[in-house]
Amino acid sequence: MTSGNESSSQPPGECPKPELCALDSVLPGVSVRIKQLNGSAEVTNRLREMGFCEEQRIRLLMKHTNIICQVCNARLGISSQLAKTIMVEHIPAPNSKPKPT
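User: That's the sequence. What structure does it adopt?
Assistant: Structure tokens below.
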């Protein structure tokens, strides 16, 4: 039986599961890719209109009462409750290029 609190050993700013986590669990400064929008059709349509689309890369800038993200070169703020409905995946750092042999 698991307790559901298995994310305590995760590296800071990374998703508890490699595949998906909620946007509100990401630390500021981390870039992620949106994979899934959960919620009513009205809410998900509005998020898409704002630029929070599936496969869109975003960067979390600030995390307080509201979440501030950089989306398509614009800064947008959403509530932390709304951020819980946006499932994202971590984007690996660009410095992980293979070395020539």
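Residues 15-90 form a domain with the SH3 type barrels. fold (CATH 2.30.30.90).
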